[in-house]
Design goal:
Layout lengths: L12 H15 L11 E6 L5 H12 L3 E5 L1 H4 L7 H8 L5 E5 L3 H10 L4 E3 L7 H15 L6 E5 L4 H13 L2 E5 L8 H11 L7 E3 L2 H5 L4 E4 L11 H7 L7 H4 L7 E4 L21 H20 L3
Parallel strand pairs: 1-2, 1-3, 3-4, 5-6, 5-8, 6-7, 8-9
Helix pairs in contact: 1-6, 1-12, 2-12, 4-5, 6-7, 6-12, 7-8
């Protein structure tokens, strides 16, 4: 059992599958209260819709109390060092959920805190999103092993966590990105190491049509993430031809499922209305953030 969830790599294969299974039980109506009488700190440097609301409601449904702390209320590493914040919050809270700009802030919190720290998004990874993604694939296909996932877009925090999660459950992972925005070689090597010698390998493309050919799942994300707004014009130019539309999905397997972690930048990575398509599971995916994160809190806080 991991003491924190900063990276998908913190979870072994059995833990990944266990979390997906428990998320499915919560989606099906499991109503336990393992956090009764406990409080969880939600420490957010970045704005959020899905992450904030799903963690707040999830803690409440588990019987606990969520305390939201925005950027200006704490001032991580500006008004007060992350280490001191962790030492204070651990006196009151059973876990710290942190959404930060810099992954090193998460490490500082986790190194100092005696309670679990959960990565609710950093510049490096988004493990809670990847768990919701796996739960959505399981929901749609009834399995994870052998499913082919094609990611079209930036090799960003979402892509990193998703690639590592696919390796942990035996799903094949492909990615199509412009060369300047591909996954880092060290990350691809780490994912391939998790697949092992008998597993598939990460497949990398610079042509989205090749990446999605025959894929069961096509996943896309924004071309410009929070904090990269100054690069938006450059990125729109680099990602021209990487939009996921119906014509691209037609190249995938029959019954293909479209995933997007949202928010969407309509007119860029997807056309307007694409997430309302019958082939889209984006809103199921958003709902599954709640169930997956409840499973995470249960795993980290409750001894099972």
């Amino acid at each position: 059992m991991p003491s924190d969830l900063l990276s998908i790599a913190d979870l072994d294969d059995a833990s990944l599958l266990h979390l997906v299974e428990v998320a499915g039980r919560y989606r099906a109506g499991l109503a336990d209260r393992p956090l009764a009488g406990l409080s969880v700190a939600l420490l957010f440097e970045k704005p959020s819709l899905r992450t904030k609301v799903s963690f707040d409601i999830g803690v409440h449904q588990l019987g606990g109390h969520a305390v939201y702390l925005g950027k200006d209320e704490v001032g991580l590493n500006t008004r007060e060092p992350a280490r001191d914040v962790a030492h204070v919050l651990e006196r009151w809270c059973c876990a710290i959920v942190a959404r930060v700009f810099d992954h090193s802030t998460l490490r500082d919190l986790a190194d100092a805190a005696s309670v679990p720290v959960v990565n609710a998004l950093s510049d490096l990874e988004h493990p809670c999103q990847a768990l919701a993604d796996l739960a959505t694939v399981q929901q749609r296909f009834g399995r994870l092993e052998g499913v082919t996932v094609a990611f079209v877009g930036d090799g960003n925090n979402v892509a990193r966590s998703l690639a590592m999660a696919c390796a942990g459950v035996g799903a094949a992972f492909r990615i199509a990105s412009p060369p300047a925005f591909a996954l880092e070689r060290a990350w691809v090597d780490a994912v391939n190491a998790r697949y092992g010698v008998k597993g598939p390998r990460v497949e990398e493309f610079d042509d989205p049509a090749q990446a999605v050919a025959g894929a069961d799942v096509v996943y896309t994300d924004v071309w410009t993430s929070m904090g990269q707004e100054a690069e938006s014009a450059e990125r729109r130019k680099a990602f021209a031809g990487f939009q996921v539309d119906d014509r691209l999905l037609d190249r995938a397997a029959p019954g293909v499922v479209l995933l997007h972690d949202m928010p969407a930048h309509y007119g860029e990575e997807v056309p307007l209305g694409m997430l309302d398509s019958p082939r889209s599971a984006a809103f199921d995916q958003a709902e599954n953030r709640l169930h997956a994160q409840k499973a995470v809190l249960r795993l980290l806080v409750v001894v099972e």
